[in-house]
Automatic annotation (TrEMBL):
Ranges for domain C2: 1-102
Tagged with keyword ATP-binding: yes
SMART domains referenced in this protein's UniProt entry, alphabetically: C2
Keywords: ATP-binding, Nucleotide-binding
Keyword rRNA-binding: no
Biological classification of the source: Eukaryota, Amoebozoa, Tubulinea, Elardia, Arcellinida
Residue ranges of coiled coil: none
InterPro entries: C2_dom, C2_domain_sf, Kinase-like_dom_sf, Prot_kinase_dom, Protein_kinase_ATP_BS
SUPFAM superfamilies to which the protein is assigned, alphabetical: C2 domain (Calcium/lipid-binding domain, CaLB) (SSF49562), Protein kinase-like (PK-like) (SSF56112)
Name of the molecule in the record: Protein kinase domain-containing protein
Top-level taxonomic group: Eukaryota
Sequence positions that bind ATP: 182
Domain Protein kinase, chain residue ranges per copy: 153-298
Amino acid sequence: MSVTIHEAKNLLALDNGKSDPFCKITGSFTSQIFQTKTKKKTVSPIWEESFAVYVGDLEESFTLTVKVYDRDFVGQDFLGETLVPLGKILVSENGYTSSNWFTLNPETQKKKGLVVVSQPKPINYGSIKIGLKYIPLGHSRGIILKSDPDKEYKFDKVLGKGSFGVVRRAVHRGTGNCYAAKIIEKRSIEGGHKRLLEREIHVMSRLHHSNIVSLEACYDTPKLVVLIMELVSGGELFQDIISRNEGYSERDAMQYTRQICSALAYLHSLGIAHRDLKPVSKSIDLPLFTFLGEPTSQ
């Protein structure tokens, strides 16, 4: 889900009729905390900043909290907050987009597991304009297909095997381009494993980075789920490390470290953590580094 903090108006003025406001965004469903830039000496700031917030399995009770603070020399002063319910997003199967003004309220206080709202003071805390954009799984790129993958691809040699399926080379019948096809039997992914697969597809469909393997398409058939991914043929980074008799030079280590950091910085900017970062989950396709292990969201 994309959350955009557009602007605010009529904020409290704490310093000579002006404030230096910034926002913190949190959710009841995540430990992530997002923060806007600070705007100087204004009570009507314009941010126009967007944040990618991972929602996961959206529930009706989920809420988003946006708090506005005034930055000063020794810390920050509270200016107001608003609670944005996300349950209404569930009613739309094709996605949800909105941009609305919300009234800023006094700060809530948590005490012994209960949420107690502070007694409102007879003052106006102002208002803030917040945009929401939510695209359900598969709609962002039209990536989930119900057609027969055998009509589009020829599947030949096995590239690898896992607990829930096999990876084969897939040759597109029209273009001759080669891909890696992760073929998973549905009967092996019931319950929690099914949710993990759905999350993997959702996350990978959002990623567009030169150092992260891309998901080209996903086929949902009665018996199988087939993920068509970029084919990377350079071999594992781990094998390259142990096969070099002369060891890795500083230049080589710097090259791969830079590309790893670039990919991780991109993932983190989307609120995604790669929780299996090790040399055997990487592939070398010189001169670029590519992830093979799928990233997961938190």
